[in-house]
Write a structure and sequence with these properties.
Elements: H1 2-6, E1 12-15, H2 18-26, E2 30-33, H3 39-46, E3 52-57, H4 64-70, E4 71-79, H5 92-98, E5 101-104, H6 112-125, H7 127-131, E6 139-144, H8 148-156, E7 163-167
Parallel strand pairs: 1-2, 3-4, 4-5, 6-7
Helix pairs in contact: 3-4
């Protein structure tokens, strides 16, 4: 949210409760509670039917159709996780008509060299924004490294409102 806002982009973010809605609103995004409203309908309404140019998705299969229908002509969908499933039917006619692109990516499967290039990009483009106070770390909770299982449980429970960090020292 913060990076997109720093670039001047209007941001929508799906959330599961009112508390998370307050957090993303404070970061500059328009929250959409997926438990009470359709993100597809909200995006269509808020964009006057135009749709959005880019979607960064962690859900996957469950949201594929709504994601594609939420994109503007020439829009891009980047899937970075598949929490809602790996397989879905893809309407190629919709993709062709709207000239959409779908992209999948993950850090886990990248080589050490690729990860190093990504980190160099973060160092060059993101760290200066942190140093100038344009971005904040948004830390929710810190755990000592030996409590990694508890940190995962806390994260997976969906109660976090920012970064969950393992402290090594």
């Amino acid at each position: 949210i913060q990076l997109a806002r720093a670039a001047g982009v209007r941001v929508f973010a799906t959330v599961g409760d009112d508390e998370k809605a307050q957090v993303v609103r404070a970061l500059g995004a328009h929250p959409i509670n997926y438990r009470t409203e359709s993100f597809r309908q909200v995006i269509q309404r808020e964009s006057a039917g135009h749709g959005v140019n880019y979607i960064l998705d962690v859900v996957g299969a469950k949201y594929l159709e709504d994601n594609l229908r939420s994109l503007a002509d020439g829009g891009h969908l980047a899937t970075i996780a598949v929490q809602g499933g790996r397989r879905a039917e893809l309407d190629l006619g919709l993709m062709l008509t709207k000239r959409l692109s779908v992209h999948g990516t993950s850090l886990r499967s990248r080589s050490a060299d690729e990860k190093a290039k990504i980190m160099a990009g973060v160092h060059e483009n993101v760290l200066p924004l942190l140093e100038r106070g344009v971005l904040s770390a948004n830390l929710d909770r810190e755990f000592p490294w030996w409590q990694a299982p508890q940190a995962h449980e806390y994260f997976d429970a969906g109660q976090h409102r920012g970064k969950v960090v393992l402290r090594v020292m």
